[in-house]
Amino acid sequence: MTEPSVTSPSSSWITHLTLGIKAMGPGVLMAAAAIGASHLVASTRAGAEFGWQLAWVILGVNLLKYPFFAAGARYTAATGESLLHGYLKQGRGYLQLFTGLNIIAAVASTAGVCMLTAAMLTQFIPLPIDWLALLVLLSSLALLILGHYQLLDKLTKIIMFVLTLTTLMAVALAWDHAQPLASNFVSPSPWQWAHVGFLVAMMGWMPAPIEVSAWNSLWLLEKQKNQTVTKAQALLDFNLGYIITGILAVVFLSLGALVMHGSGEHFSDSGAQFANQLINLYSQVMGGESRYLIGIVAFLCIFSTTVTVIDGYSRTLAMGWQLLSATNSSEKRLTGIMLAISALGLLLILFFKGALLPLLEFVMILAFMTTVIFAWLNYRLMTSSQLPQADRYGAKMKLLSWFGLSYLLIFAALFVYWYAFIK
Predict the structure, then answer these.
(1) Complete DSSP assignment for 3-54
(2) Coil, strand or helix: which one is 332?
(3) Using only C-alpha atoms, what is the Rg of the chain?
(4) Which of 89, 111, 191, 346 is the most buried (most CB within 10 A)?
(5) TM segments (predicted)?
(6) What is the Cα–Cα distance from 248 to 35, expressed in whole angstroms?
């Protein structure tokens, strides 16, 4: 008679951990999409110009947007469908509204992150930023079309690990070598009308545009094609990715506050000069010999953002088209949408002629103004009778959602007033 196998507590723990790591992916991809312009640009710039004053704003924005981002993982884990299926069940007009806004956001966001990636490449390749942007787009498309989701999933995990480790090291070193501010230096206040545009831009992409919740939903469905992902694993994966984005946002702000704040140096609007300043920021605290290493890591970070942005928006638009036209899914359609988004994004880059910060500010403000609608769509879905009672948002999440919606509406109205009457 064969003795039953006994699993030791340690091996059981290792097995659960291994399965948990394998189940991760959509949340990490979401973090990779978020840790781009909002972190490297907006958070670092916030620290450089205003010191620590906006740290609580960054944390607050991440908290207030949480219910709307969590909808992607929670709805898909509960129903086995994407958020877009949920919008359609609410009414055809809701999905049409979401898809229409996504077309605009897809082109603008692709242009913004692609130019930032090209700006990083200027530190290594002596070509005009427009040509480098084309090279970035072609490389991204080749990776997505040939490697599909599986390669994107594996590559992103490695990049995220290296970026997180390197950035934490840089901040730890900056903390040790930070110079005290001059006794007569007074930090400028961000709470002035002149800074409303920057504040709205920073919050628009902090931690990312809310439509990223739909990407998370579609990536989770893609992940489930290859392995089983439980509700608990899906939520853990999302929460881990979301927490990482929040922590790193403050870390990047810290780097700007410790190294640039009070130095009299300001980030340039030029893409190439901005990239040089950002890399110098790291090399000042990690040593000049680390310049190329930091440049490569920063480039990989932004490149992964570009790839996930193109993939996420394309999948969302392809699914929207499929549901609205009642047709089957098609790889050719997905590829065609990727090509169209990339081509229109390149045209937008050419229009801004290498002016990185104005382009990114335009994209971030656009994201903030559409965020209210995306947030409302997700809240409506997560409190609807379509979901089983156990999977709907409870009292705490509803309360947080209403705080979040109120904050988004107030700042949107404030920005419109500033733009119309004060700017």
Answers:
(1) PPP---HHHHHHHHHHHHHHH--HHHHHHHHHSSIIIIIIIHHHHHHHTTTT
(2) helix
(3) 22
(4) 111
(5) 21-42, 54-73, 94-125, 131-151, 158-175, 195-219, 240-260, 292-313, 334-352, 358-379, 399-420
(6) 8
DSSP bridge partners of 423: none
Compute the distance between CA of residue 393 and CA of residue 205 in angstroms, rounded to an integer. 24
8 Å CB contact between 110 and 345: yes
3-state secondary structure (DSSP) of residue 2 = coil
Under DSSP, the state recorded for 269 is S
pLDDT for the residue numbered 402: 96
- State how far the Cα of 393 lies from the Cα of 350, in Å rounded to an integer: 44
Distance CA 50, CA 53 (A): 6
DSSP string of 99-120, one letter each residue: HHHHHHHHHHHHHHHHHHHHHH
Dist. CA 177–CA 287, nearest whole Å: 11
CA distances from 63 to 69, 73, 191, 196, 197 (A): 10, 16, 21, 21, 21
Burial class (CB in 10 A: 0-12, 13-18, 19+), 161: exposed
Specify the higher pLDDT residue, 246 or 13: 246
Using CA atoms, how far residue 404 sits from 76, 168, 369, in Å, is: 22, 29, 14
Q: What is the pLDDT of residue 152?
A: 66
Among 177-181, 291-295, 409-413, the range of highest mean pLDDT: 409-413
pLDDT tops 70 at residue 127:
yes
| Separation between Cα atoms, residue 163 and residue 297, nearest integer Å | 6
Residue 140, token pair as written in the block: 């991204």
Residue type, 345: G
pLDDT of residue 286: 66
| pLDDT reported for residue 20 | 47
* Calpha distance 339→141 (Å, rounded): 8
Q: Does the 42-180+187-422 domain belong in CATH 1.20.1740.10?
A: yes
Helix, strand and coil in the chain, % to nearest 5: 80, 0, 20
- Per residue in 256-288, pLDDT (tens digit) is 888 888 777 777 766 667 778 878 777 776 677
Instruction: Specify the range with the lowest mean pLDDT, choosing from 151-155, 355-359, 379-383, 406-410.
Output: 151-155
Record the tokens describing residue 142, joined without a space: 């080749």
pTM: 0.83
- Which position has the higher pLDDT, 40 or 307? 307
Task: Give the pLDDT band of residue 412 (cuts 50, 70, 90).
Answer: confident
- The DSSP output letter for 242 is H
β-sheet bridge partners, residue 270: 355
